[in-house]
Write a structure and sequence with these properties.
Blueprint: H1 3-15, H2 18-25, H3 29-43, E1 48-50, E2 55-57, H4 59-87, E3 91-97, H5 102-116, E4 120-126, H6 129-137, E5 143-147, E6 157-172, H7 176-184, H8 191-194, E7 200-202, H9 205-214, E8 228-230, H10 233-241, E9 247-250, E10 260-264, E11 270-278, H11 288-299
Parallel strand pairs: 3-4, 3-5, 7-8
Antiparallel strand pairs: 1-2, 5-11, 6-9, 6-10, 6-11
Helix pairs in contact: 1-2, 1-3, 1-4, 2-3, 5-11
Length: about 300
Amino acid sequence: MNTQQLECFTTLAKTLNYAKTAEQLSMSQPAVSRQIQSLETELNTRLFNRTTRSVSLTPVGFQFLDDAQQMLSLYYHSLEWISTFHQQKRTILRIGYADSHANCLISKILGPLLAENSNIVPELTLDQTDANLHRLATSQLDLVIGMKDAKFSAENITFQKLCDDSFICVMNKQHPLALKCKKRRQKSVSSADFWPYRQIIDIPPYLLKHVFSRGHHLVPVNDELDNIICATTSEAYNLALAGAGFSLIPSHLAPPHKELVFLPWEESPHAPMGIYYQQQAAMDKNSAIYQFISTSKKCITVRSSPS
């Protein structure tokens, strides 16, 4: 199927006249007829009823008309976009991230960057960290933002640390631990404080087997309780919001919410949060990659004690 076939079909569907169709498309009538016949052969169906006196759409042709018009519209929109892209020298910046809650962080960086560089076009990819790092290593992404992955190493990939992030305890305001801390005017929690309560644990699927086969956790877990395991931080955050339990969440992935309590975890380990990129690609100070990294250093501050 090609655009000439679709142009002939949609124009003939409008005019219902081969002569007028040929005139509008600057083609001969036999050429229009051949395009219609080849389209019908490809689709294995009749699109028009033809007699010596009239032309009309078949039921299938009538149903196909909307699809054909949409395909042409998308095609010409793409042509226009590509033409504008080259004329304005736009630059695609392909950013990978592992959790939807990282959008707030990415937006914070992109805001000032795009204000000064309107020709940069961000393209975001949400996927597990290992998958995005593979894309980065094979030049399918320009940047991957998030926590440093201890399992990943590649000679051509550099990690730029933006900050040392820590875990905070997130729970609904009506959670027993939240009420207890409020009564005591307690501004942080210890492992002993949350030990009696059900925990919502987020473990990316690619790490799930690794974690349990080694018999350890990134955070303390009371295995005697009916804890909940989910795949992403955003899922854990929303389950905590629903009152299903508490969750220990990296600070940069815990946006404020009026129905949630955020308390620093006293024994929290700290882990580097930052940006992976191909070192060679960031050497040009005028590149979008270099500018994104530079902007992120200026505007990233991870709150340590959210309210």
